[in-house]
Design goal:
Layout: E1 2-7, E2 16-19, E3 29-39, H1 41-47, E4 63-64, E5 69-77, E6 89-92, E7 120-124, E8 128-130, H2 137-140, H3 143-155, E9 165-169, H4 173-184, E10 188-193, H5 196-204, E11 209-212, H6 219-227, E12 230-235, H7 242-247, E13 249-257, E14 276-279, H8 285-298, E15 306-309, H9 313-322, E16 329-332
Parallel strand pairs: 9-10, 9-12, 10-11, 12-13, 13-14, 15-16
Antiparallel strand pairs: 1-2, 1-4, 3-5, 3-7, 3-16, 5-6, 6-8
Length: 334
């Protein structure tokens, strides 16, 4: 079976495709034929060596299989496994042993643990979720990292209420998932982007207000005026945009600190600024299953902009790096 191999810090060009042998599943494991995967920004910064160990990075320039979001079918199970059976459609969760509660484990796929950019793999059976019939494999392959991050940004620290306002920055996987979840829950969404074409797509998906942050330096004040105060900011940019985000908040609003697209994570400023900043570190298996149930109930269908074959994984990563995509970039693992 084919697998992609990455050396942290060596960059996209250093990704290799290798033939690997996969042993039978050990006790407690399930073997999964992975069908497809999707790229997260996190995968790019692992390749570039920018993800610190406390966030699931590889230490010492280690070699790993990259990526964390995938879907496939169970082909075999080891002894003692009752959670799944051969033929089940499944996805591995982001942190393989983080099943419940708020204490994340460090066995994060594509970081401290080998990821999903491979055709066949053994996973802890407890670290798998059953994918619903209402969603296709490629759709389910968006959830483990980006989807669940968006879910917890909206429903964890300050649970979103119908009629609330959400500010989503950009049109990557987390922001578009947050847009979809928020609209399905009856909230209102402000979407920002540097691309008017992407903003038009966002409007078609239900965004109530769209703002081009590149051409409109008053975007933050306009977001505040349109909403009379934002309740949840889905913060994927980090410190670079933090003060502007704070200026949009309602009195009970929160900054859901997720990413560092242009700077560093905002949670490093917790307690230093007059705003509630909540770090969001993906989520656990219970939350993943709750998200899937929500999507089925409300008919939420994730968006995948373009799909590459595994043999073109370098092109897929470069396309993700370019930012010239909407929501998610997929990889076909067949």
């Amino acid at each position: 079976m084919k697998a992609a191999i990455i050396t942290e810090g060596a960059g996209i060009d250093a990704i290799e495709l290798r033939d690997v042998d996969v042993p039978p599943p050990a006790p407690g494991q399930a073997q999964v034929r992975l069908h497809c995967a999707t790229i997260n920004f996190r995968d790019l910064i692992v390749a570039k060596g920018l993800l610190v160990p406390s966030m699931g990075g590889i230490t010492g320039g280690g070699v790993r299989i990259p990526m964390s979001c995938a879907a496939g079918v169970v082909t075999a199970v080891g002894s003692g496994v009752t959670r799944v059976k051969p033929g089940d459609r499944v996805s591995p969760i982001f942190a393989q042993s983080w099943l419940h509660g708020r204490e994340p484990s460090m066995d994060m796929l594509g970081g401290m643990a080998d990821g999903v950019a491979r055709q066949l793999a053994n996973f802890s059976a407890e670290g798998l979720v059953l994918n619903p019939d209402e969603l296709g494999d490629l759709e389910c392959a968006t959830f483990a990292c980006a989807g669940l991050t968006a879910w917890n940004a909206l429903f964890l620290a300050r649970p979103l209420q119908p009629g609330d306002w959400v500010l989503c920055h950009g049109t990557g996987g987390v922001s578009i998932a947050a847009l979809q979840f928020a609209k399905a829950h009856g909230a209102k969404v402000i979407l920002t982007s540097s691309s008017d074409a992407k903003l038009r797509r966002g409007t078609a998906m239900g965004a109530d207000v769209t703002l081009n942050y590149r051409t409109d330096p008053e975007w933050a004040s306009k977001a505040r005026a349109a909403s009379s105060g934002v309740h949840i900011v889905v913060d994927v940019a980090g410190v670079e945009q933090l003060e502007a985000n704070i200026s949009t908040l309602a009195p009970d609003g929160v900054i859901a600190s997720i990413g560092m697209l242009g700077s560093e994570f905002s949670w490093g400023r917790i307690g230093q600024l007059p705003a509630q900043i909540v770090p969001v570190n993906v989520g656990n298996r219970d939350e993943h299953e709750a998200m899937l149930a929500f999507c089925v109930k409300h008919g939420v269908r994730p968006v995948i902009d373009v799909v590459y074959d595994l043999a073109r994984i370098h092109d897929a990563f470069r396309h993700a790096e370019s930012g010239q995509f909407f929501s998610k970039v997929g990889i076909n693992l067949f």
